[in-house]
Every structure is written in structure tokens, then in C-alpha cells.
User: Fold this.
Amino acid sequence: MVLSELAARLNCAEYKNWVKAGHCLLLLRGSLQGFVGREVLSFHRSLLAAAPGLGPRASCRGGSRCSPRARQFQPQCQVCAEWKREILSHHTNRNGDVHWGNCRPGLWPVDAWEVAKAFMPRGLADKRGPEECDAVALLSLINSCDHFIVDRKKVTEVIKCRNEIMHSSEMKVSSAWLRDFQMKIQNFLNEFRNIPEIVAVYSRIEQLLTSDWAVHIPEEDQRDGCEYEAGIYLSESQVNEIEMELLKEKLQEIYLQAEEQEVLPEETSTRLEMVKEFLRNNEDLRNSLTEEMQKLDSLHLQHQKRDSKEPSGEMPKERA
Ligand SMILES: [Zn+2]
Assistant:
């Protein structure tokens, strides 16, 4: 039953491309985690070497008053104020959005990762290290922090592709798009020639993208006889895991955009409807995403209720 649903989905070449593209992002994430973790520690050490006053002996005196919210942070103590200045001086996007709400400033003197999160997209407050982050969080850090010496255009090209994957309402991408994505990943990876673990991932990505990616769905009677070729064939449960990760990330994205009112409630309705339509035909995925869907539905319902109470005209703006 479940197998036949998966088989039917993968019969659609463009959906299969979408899942493949998502798999590339997961491989990319895996190859970046170790490197990013090490670099964040070294970045933190270099900050403390330049400004020893910000080290472990410094402590926030503002208490709960030094709490950032979304893009807003007005430090109430000197330590946090200096840290904020220091972070901004290394931020390549210092005049744009900085998601201070990701951070607990009181931990900046002792926790390198809390500093790293100031260079990342919103919604990462509860992530405690690179192993808990998705590809776009790590790519954004590399892009936004001047500790990383890279051609930033190559980073933003990959981020742009990632956003196209996540925002694809039908969860489909063309084969031409996938080839273009492969080229952009290659350009990005070439920036890390001296990091073997990052270079190594390219052959896996290339293999994945150029293969037909025959997902082996065993027939009932040949279940025992199937042979997997490492790296090319994935078992149905591996494919399912990739689909789930992708869909969760997509739902999270819809949630954050709705929460910050970056899109109109009608747009959220449309997006939700499309995902629901897709899940309607795919019980295997639907059952595993119940929690995420409920969270989205209730947020959306809240917005609709509130909007219907508002007098017509301008929407309330919560974000600063
Ligand atoms: Zn403080």
C-alpha cells in the first residue's frame, strides 16, 4: 500500500527531480556541518583574542531586559552592547535583517554557537549546533559572516536554488533546473578545495543527479532478490525519509512566513491547500505530518479570526 503510493509519486519525473534536489541539500548539509562547527569555534576565539573583555568573565547585567525579539535587540547592558557592535562589524548584511531573536545574548561570552545564530535566518533559536541545522542555515552563516572567505555570489546562488525547491508549490522541478542546480553546487564546492570532506560530497551528488536514481521498489515476489548498488539505489524507506525531511522544511517555511505576515493570509491558504491536496493522495506522508499540519492550520485560523475582527484596511504589523 505504502509502496505503491511511493511508486506512483516517483513515476512523475519532476517530483522525482524535486526529491533528488532535496537529497542534494541534505548531502550538502552533512558535508558542511563539521567544517562550520570548527570554524564557528575559531571565529569566536578570534573575537575574544581581539576583545578579551568580551570573554567568559564578562557577563550580561541586563537579565531578561537583554532579550532580543525577531529583528529587534536593544541591549540593556554594556557587555551585550559591545557584543552587538562586534557581531555587526563582522556581518555582511549589517544594514539589513539581523535575526537577533535567534540568540541568547547572555551566552555570547561562552557559547560560540549563540554568536553564530546572529548570522542565520530566523526561526533557529532552539538549535544548539550545526548538526541541528538545515542546509540554508549553514549557507546563510557562511554568506553573512566575514570570517568565511568565499565568493559570496556562489553561496547565494545555492541559497536561491534552495528557496526555489522549498517554494515550489507543486513540489516539482524540471531536469534542466536540476542540471543548473548541479552546476551551482559544483561552483560552490570548488570554493572549499582544501576541505576534503566537502570536496568528497561532490562525487556523491554527481552520482545522484546523473543517475536515473532508480529507486528500487521490490515486487512482492522478488523482495529477497534485489541488489542495491551503493549510492545510486535507495531503499523505499530512505526515499521516504528524504521526502519527510523536505516536506517538514517546506511546512516550517510556510509557518514562519505566515507567522511574520510576510505573505497575505490568502496566499497561505493557497499554499496550505496545495500541500493538503498532495497529502490527500499520499496517506503514507500525511500520517507522518499530522503534527506540522495541525500547527499550521491553527496559526492560519488565528490569523483569519483576527483579520475578520479588524476593520477593513491596513493589516496590523507586528514585526518591527
Ligand atoms: Zn546584557
In short: The chain has twelve helices and no strands.
